[in-house]
Amino acid sequence: MKRSQLTLSILPLILVAVHSIFMVAQTFSAEPPKDPIIVAETGMHFATIDRIASDAYGKWLVTASEDESLRVWELPVGKLFRTIRPPVGMTGDGRLASVALSPDGATIACGGYTGTEWDKTYSIYLFNLASGKMIGRCTGLTNVIRHIAFSPDGRFLAATLWGQNGGVHLFQTSNWSQTGEDREYGNHSVSAHFSRDSRLVTTSFDGYLRLYEVGTEGSLRLTVKVKAPNGNIPYAARFSPDGSKVAVGYHDTASVSVLSGRDLSLLFSPNTSGVDNGASGSIAWSSDGRYLFAGGTYRKIVDGDWNVIIQRWSDGGRGIRSDFAAADNTIMDLAPLPDGRVAYASFNPAIGILDQTGKRILFVPPPTADFRDNGDGFRVSSDGSKVSFSYEKWGKSPASFDLNKRGLTLGKPDASLKPPLTMTDGLTITNWKHSCEPKLNNVPLQLEEFERSRSLTIAPNGKSFILGTSLYLRHYDHQGNLIWKTALPGEAWAVNVTGNGSIALAGLGNGAILWVRMSDGKWIFGFFPHADKKRWVLWTYYGYYDASVGGEDFIGWQVNRGRDQAADFFPASRFRDTNYRPDIFAKILVTLDVDEAVRLANAVRGVAKGAPTITQILPPVIEILDPIESSISTTSQTVTLRYRVRSPSGAPVNSVRALVNTRPIPTPKGIPVASGEKDVGEVTVTVPEEDCEIALIAENRNASSVPATIRVLWKGKPLAKRSLPRLLMLAVGIGKYEDDSLKLNFAAKDADDFVSAFKQQEGLLYSKVITKEITDTKAKKDNILDGLEWLKKETTSRDIAVIFLSGHGTNDQAGQYYFLPQNAAIDNLTRTGLELSTIRNTVAFILGRVLLFLDTCHSGSVDFNGIVNTLTGSGVGAVVFASSAGNQKSWEREDWKNGAFTKALVEGLNGAADYKGKITITSLDLYVSDRVKELTAQKQTPVVGKPTTIPDFQIAEKKKGKFPGSM
């Protein structure tokens, strides 16, 4: 059995902890499944963040999400330090609902739907924060683990459980054994908190608060049990720092209570006047006890838009209330930080920090589009090849995606796309929006407990309809009989059906859109548009994918390593050669079957059989053992790293490479391969006198590993004034081909003009600009290869290397890209074409920074998305400017005397892309993108790819006056 979709989920804008409704029929085995499982990865959670936790010093923030991952954030900057993946199952096992961090910041405890598929009980997983390794498990728990808390001295761990009689459980941290419990609860228990003197307070949906004494040996004695004074469902309870008071927030009311820490008697209720909507379930005291914070679903309009509010009371809750706009969705949890700051997590998901004045000083937004209340904006073409949606709730920031053109378009959709049909003769569906009781012709449609209807569309023939809910996509006939239901990994905020009636589309709360077969409810592929409105990925059940520049690693494969170890994650780029298949998706819309689409696409490629399994081609895994920190400070120009490599596929590890700022470093003796659990390698790396990043990469016959990285902060003497770097350039322009059918008018001139633009920088930004220009009849394959070899040999780590290729490019039958030298033969590309892998291997071993400019897509058949992702990927690390996106044609014109792309580049380098006297990667990208679209009437859109680890940097300097060719 394989899981058939990305494990993404999200809940509505209410604090309803109904996680058990996501559970489906389970199968049990002794260990977690070994087959790779496709999951999403965006650098941020993409499903609900249920809980957050911090250490006593405010150095770390840990977030737990229903996307089955833990993320560790380095404070105060909010940089992601580590993602930890517990074992996951095929039925949602691994979704996290709770997390705690030991006071010293060393140990993470997390739980939720954890371990039931293989243990038949629920488990708390324990991880070392520094290494990410699992160090233990607390097993034998009977239901979902909803909250975990460490005692302030770190000796005990408390966990509360979902379900009646789940109650509270106490563990000692010396050996993680259970020492006490109380299961006499009438409903879910969702919160636990320790005082500094070993008292423990819990809440329960049975309406009671409970106070316990914790013995030195770990006994648990109930001393007080009282009904919550201001609401029926107490949600969170927290001791004040001195232990004298307990603050309580509620699931069912905006009221907040402050009780005695000794007997839970009501002391006072903070002022909540004017709070006329929502509840205040999350509670926190400031670290010094001066302020009390509350958050939940309370909203109000701030700066013209609805915002979810964090309330803060002065004088320990008795004083003035201040309201601070924090997010646009439910505040799920709060965590106090030193100096009066407070961290929070919101439902959509996002994390933030308010400082002592209430100013938001950190905000990590969700990576997902928001389809809530999209209305008529969720439109689709008759065949399902084009869909429109909105990036923001209420239909704001509309966009369209065209499967055939493989591109996004921002703005309102064209009129050919049809909105969902919600009214027709004979079908009167009412009460379907945000309701638990939708009705057909005034007859209720039966939903599951807690399931809520969100969206509706009627099939074009009027004989059936689709109901999108918080749990399922439901297909009913005209009499209300259920035809099928498909479990969803997120709320179905929007649904539609294609005009031909063959496909249903669902816009989910996790930001993904699924294409689902109307005949049986099986999903056939998904689409994820990142919230940056640029990057996207398409994927199928088997993991075949298509992606924009920078979008392919939004998916990948998780590989479990047993129930006692954290899982591995391998991004999709590791399997680009086998799984990057844009050619499959258009065929799926015709076949409505992935297997048949793959067969047809393989037939076109001349491939007799399918790709090897992911398990067979797994790359190595490399980890840095020492230093264990994500960043270190140094005054020395050498840094020594200890590391270990393993190979999950069993394939021997061939090599280990070290890179500084994505560029290779010379290692005459090579780096030893240290593979195996006990084999530790060591390498000493020379670093520049500036902040930098070191990466270690291991390789086997399958692929290269995900880099293991460490940031090096230079703390030595201020940098001495350095000489200017050199710029070395290989420029190739071919218009006069041996094959007359390939003739181009301005490719050679493009190369001349590009060289001239950079030559103007000699003495400005570069000490020398050294060029090798190969054009027209001189641009034989051997000469171009010699030029690439020259560039690789001559470039030092202080230099900038530039490659400019203008001419024809094409793909062979199997989709492999070739640049066409002057003597290329289309029917014999293997011998006469310059293969992408040759360019890639050259770039990978150039010591200096590499800029690659590709103006080679004149036939309209070249996939620049795949090319750019290949050349910017880990282990290659070039900055790539490509002339067009997807399968667009690159244009040249007589009145320009250039191609549009080169014309814009030259203008930009000659000053048009100036930003405060500098021309940087970003400023040139912005100028060229706008200028090319202007020149070609939107027919050509350049793309730029840059490794995420490389900051923007200057590549040219504006000179007074105008250069030849500038505007």
Structural summary, described in words:
The structure is a single chain. The chain has 967 residues and is mostly beta strands. The protein folds into 4 domains: 49-364, 7 Propeller (Methylamine Dehydrogenase, Chain H), CATH 2.130.10; 375-613, Lipocalin (Beta Barrel); 618-714, Immunoglobulin-like, CATH 2.60.40; 726-957, Rossmann fold. A 6-stranded antiparallel beta sheet has the order 41-42-43-44-45-46, covered by helices on one side. A 6-stranded mixed beta sheet has the order 58-57-59-63-64-68, with helices on both faces. A hairpin with a 4-residue loop joins strand 45 and strand 46.
CATH architecture of the largest domain: 7 Propeller
The CATH H-level homologous superfamily of the largest domain: YVTN repeat-like/Quinoprotein amine dehydrogenase
Number of helices: 11
CATH topology assignment of the largest domain: Methylamine Dehydrogenase, Chain H
Number of domains: 4
What characteristics describe this protein?
967 residues, mainly beta, Methylamine Dehydrogenase, Chain H, Lipocalin, Immunoglobulin-like, 4 domains, six-stranded mixed β-sheet, 11 helices, 11% helix, disordered N terminus, disordered C terminus
